[in-house]
Write the structure tokens for this entry.
Amino acid sequence: MPDEKVVMEALNRVMDPELHRSLVDLGMVRDLKIEPQGKITFTLALTIPSCPLREHIAEDARRALLVLPGVNEAEVVFGAMTPEERSAVLRTAAAAPLPKINQFNKVKHLVAVMSGKGGVGKSSVTALLAVTLARQGYKVGILDADITGPSIPKLFGLPPGGLRGGEQGMLPVITRLGIKVVSANLLVKAEDTAVIWRGPVISGAIQRFWNDVLWGKLDYLFLDLPPGTSDAALTVVQRLPIMGAVLVTTPQDLSALVVRKAMAMLAQLNISILGVVENMSFFQCTDCGSSHEIFGPSHLAEIQEAAGHELPAVRLPILPAFTALADAGKIEEAAFEAFDAFVPLVMCTS
Ligand SMILES: Nc1ncnc2c1ncn2[C@@H]1O[C@H](COP(=O)(O)OP(=O)(O)OP(=O)(O)O)[C@@H](O)[C@H]1O
Ligand SMILES: [Mg+2]
């Protein structure tokens, strides 16, 4: 059986999720009993007896105890602190706030990838931007800000549930090329679990992915924003230190119109447009060699005109081989020739 010191050390690793301090530090562990048959019992003195997180804390504590050799049962009895104890604990927690996780993060360029409407290839372009820069040796990350429709993990073949909490915060999942990825899909256990959250919760989640993830040092962090100019997208763009946005569109009339809407929104927010990607712009027939504009003629010239100045722009073809790689989670093997010239212009790396 472990002795009291070992048990207290194990409980010292269990954090109060609100006060961000260990149960032991907060004086919440009382009346510890270690029975020779392998049972451990203690009283968890709560700051508020009806604390909604009490089961969660108790479960964390039980788990920490049950991994100790010789322990086969762990019982947590709920107790309460006196009002004096409670004020003392809250005072201590407030007096010495933990260093904010983002003090460890140094993100040189935060770049948003936006589209007016869905399904135009925004996530694919986000992934391709990251892949192109990672291949050139830059340190890159992707924050999948499409909380309710996350698709970045699938493009990289990352299984659900891969995010880990470290001592200092949430740790991103790392792809084969070394790209750091954080997505709501990596939090849930099954890929098809629907994430049903509303506007304020969504922008809160994105903010937490920015604040509470240990991104470390990055040259570029890409934000794959939800489609459209919704509230959630707006709030995020306003709150984070975004360097600029890459707009993604397709040649459809409606798509060009919504891009102009997105441009107007960015102008209002004083965020510069770094470049425009016209995706699925044409199809290069491998048999006859000629190019077909499946979704209609390009609107790039029009978009450039609306911007009032020349913007770096690129037309990406419809490439069935690309869809196949994306579907197989192998986007890191994909390449668009035209993209290699475009990325340095947008990211000012040339
Ligand atoms: N240039 C391309 N050639 C072939 N297939 C493509 C191309 N661009 C994107 N696709 C495919 O089109 C589909 C939609 O792309 P993607 O998920 O990147 O769009 P999105 O704008 O992020 O969508 P959503 O609005 O749902 O987030 C995917 O199946 C993707 O593989
Ligand atoms: Mg997407």
